[in-house]
Amino acid sequence: MRVFTAAFRFQLALARRKPDTVHVLVTAPLFTLVFVSIGVHAHRPDFTASAVLAPVLMSLWSLALLTAGDLISQDRNRGTLEAIVATPARFATVVLGRLTAVASVALVCFAESWLVAWSCFGVVLTIAHPLVFVSCLVCSSLAMAGTASLLSAAFVLMPSARVLQNTLTYPFYLLGGLLVPVAELPGWLRPLSRLVFLSWSSDLLRASVSGPAGHWWTALAAIVGLGVAGAVSGALLIGAILRRVRRTGTLALT
Amino acid sequence: MSDVDGVGTAEPAVEVRGLARVYDRGRGRNSRQITALDRIDLTVARGEIRGLLGPNGAGKTTLCKILCTVLLPSAGSARVLGHDVTADPVAVKKSVGVVFGGDRGLYGRLDARANLNLWGALHGVHGAALHRQVDALLERVGLADRAEERVDGFSRGMKQRLHLARGMVADPQVLLLDEPTSGMDPVAAHDFRSLVEQLRLEGRTVLLTTHDMAEAEAVCDQVTLMDKGTLLATERPSELSAGLSSLESVEAEDVPESAVGEISELSGVADVKRLSAGRLRVDTESSDVTRQVLQVLVNAGVTSLGTVRPSLEDVYLHYIGRRGMAVRS
Amino acid sequence: MSALTSSFHVVRYSAANAVADFRATYTWRSWTFGWLGRMLAQVTFFATMGLALHSSASAHYLVVGNSVMTCVVEAMTVVTSSAWERRQGTLPLLAASPARLIWVFFGRSLQWPVSGTVTSLVALLGLGPLFGVTWSPGQVPVLVGLVLLTAVSTYCVGLFLAAFVLSASNARNIVSNVGYLVMMAICGVQVPVSFWPDWVGVVAQSLPLTHTLAAVRGVAAHAGAGDIALRAGWAVLAGACWLGAAAVAFTRLQIHARRNGHFSFAE
């Protein structure tokens, strides 16, 4: 746990110094402006929940993606990856801790989004089920961290990770039903969509805001389950990579 | 090479008067001023290879930056081929080529030829003239058969040679070489010196900053010693030592202790040092004293002895003190 | 005249850098499946919102706006790639050359508007019909011209911002993203410009995208040629003004750096 906390703090300190990492905090309000304007223009108040919540999940996803990609390649460039690998702390714990910090930064985006909707359009988003809402945000952040650790392992294995990193944004926003609920996507996409935790998160967040939360525990379980699956497979992959590193003695060519 | 827009050849290549540069560092209460150049005067004749020798922080690079117009002076004036760097920077840019050491400043994803084409175009050379010039330069720096390769894959020495070609692509009359051989291996550095020698034969003016004594001695017509933003002296490499005959020294082997004592008491002896393997070195302040020291040694029956002219390094240490190459804080 | 020729050659040889950077970033496969795929997903993301609003007019509006938007996103990458110059240590040498910085930087990142134009056209012509936006063969050349104009004129806006980012290169990604998101919000991409307060509309009129997008929508609605030409004319004027502003910004940057010693050889 101490290792986890230390990694968490380290990533927060890094985020403050590096403007690129906090750039989601700048872009999230602008996305809110764009989405809410579409709903207001179309006279569809029911669209507000999606419009305010989508930027939050987008920030969460892009930030974790950015960090997952940078985490390992930057460490590799600075030569610190070998140093971390050499420390007794479980490497996977370090990665997970750093990513959790990133996820919690993104939660600030929700406050920003809410404020933009209220101050620019006078739209006040009330939350019908605050407890479900908060649990969903917390679980989603953790699931994001879990998924991102899988992504960072994938990035290490793929040399053209940077291009991949760029590609994994909008297709997942679509699949995750961020603006348009999964139920309204073409039928053949739905099973695929359900494998992306974002689809459960966006449905549950909308439900917690606007109406009956329904089977909220099913959704929460799905989010946590997918997050854990990501974290476990990420940890296994990273473990396999590290074993290979110890055998071949270098990360340089991975 | 035509004369640059009618400026008489009588104009020195570089003429610096009372030139000063002060940097502001830090903010608020921590702000302070650093004097990088302290009212210097310097004249470099056309066709001269002038060395600027000094430790890091002496002000060499600041002077180069002012002369190539990327930095404004705080006071005083600097003229290149008669053009004032403040009043007419464009004319200065057209007559100056800049080369600095290290392997940055080139486009790694472009091949050598594309790099030279770009820098040529930036200096207003294009068309057939550019092609001819680029071909000739690639040939000259020995990169003709690597011209179509990406610069990323070049060795440091190759990059350095490409840098020199880049600095010469507009056929400048004046070249500023700022630590051009830093980080070069000895073979590459030797090749580089012969390239500088060619520049002399072509009548170009070169201002070469370095902290390598051997380099300055090998290629420069004159060497200016700098420290803490001031000029200490300007001499030919040989005269610099000769003029400092006050710093002549005598070296001898197997000197009896009595003779060592006698020499130490002579007035005009600056220092007596025991070198390794029984060698003694005596620094004197004038030729007269040197003769006296030699006399004492001969009288004491010492047979292995001789006078040593100070090397550039000795001169340098004499002017700058024992601080050596330490960077000024 | 000779100054013009020299500037042209600077742009031309500087563009070699653009080509080299593009080749180093993408292969044809990673461009097609990586970049193009991502941008088409972005257009789809916004266009499906029209479907969710159960309005084919909205879907139509969103697919056209967001298709044109893709070349804006890419053109604004000039803010990021201009900052690479700092990393390469070439900036002081550029400053020591007699050429004007604006032309170097204009050529330096031309890969983005070119690639962006292709992306936008694929989106308009390939994705548009899926959302009910169809084009006749006669409209295609006009579309190509308008999209190219959008990309190049927005590139000039990006160049203006790039001049500032050169002295604060850590902010390059933020500036580039904020730049295109503001345009996405106010230039008539998602909602008509008239939706916003008047003062926002005034800002929107200064951005070339507002005019070229109106022209593209005009083409889709079979508006008169005069109307479209007028809109295109405004975009050309706006783009030229931004280019002029960028030239001034680069000159000021150079003057400022020369005074304060910000161009470092050893950087």
Give the rounded overall mean pLDDT of chain B. 84
Distance between the termini of chain B: 44 Å
Which assembly state applies to the chains in this document?
A: heterotrimer
Low-confidence stretches of chain A: none
What structural class do helix, strand and pairing data of chain A support?
Answer: mainly alpha
Instruction: Report how far apart the termini of chain A are.
Output: 29 Å
Largest interface: B-C, 37 and 34 residues
- Strand percentage of chain A: under 5%
Tell me the total number of β-strands of chain B.
Answer: 14
- Could you tell me the strand content of chain B as a percent range? 25-35%
Number of helices of chain A: 11
Percent helix among the residues of chain B?
25-40%
- Secondary structure tally, helices of chain B: 11
Q: In sequence order, what are the helices and strands of chain A, one letter per element?
A: HHHHHHHHHHH
Rg on CA atoms of chain B, Å: 24 Å
Shape verdict of chain B:
elongated
Specify the helix fraction band of chain A: over 70%
Question: How would you summarize what this structure contains?
Answer:
Chain A is mainly alpha-helical and 254 residues long.
Task: State the main characteristics.
heterotrimer; A: mainly alpha; 11 helices; C: 267 residues; mainly alpha
Describe what you observe in this structure.
The complex is a heterotrimer of chains A (254), B (329) and C (267). Chain A has helices spanning 2-17, 23-41, 48-78, 80-86, 91-121, 130-157, 161-167, 170-175, 190-193, 197-210, 216-248. By secondary structure, chain A is mainly α. Chain A has one domain (2-248). The mean pLDDT of chain A is 77. In chain B, the strands form three sheets. A six-stranded mixed beta sheet of chain B has the order 6-7-8-3-9-10, sandwiched between helices. In chain B, strands 2-1-4-5 form a four-stranded antiparallel beta sheet, with helices on one face. Chain B contains eleven helices and 14 strands. Chain B is of the alpha/beta class. With 267 residues, chain C is an all-alpha fold. Chain C contains twelve helices and no strands. Chain B binds chain C through residues 21, 23-24, 61, 64-65, 68-72, 90, 93-94, 96, 98, 100, 102, 104-110, 114, 117-124, 126, 166, 178, and chain C through 5-6, 9-10, 12-14, 16-17, 20-21, 23-24, 88-90, 92-99, 104, 257-261, 263, 265-267. Chain A: It is a multi-pass membrane protein.
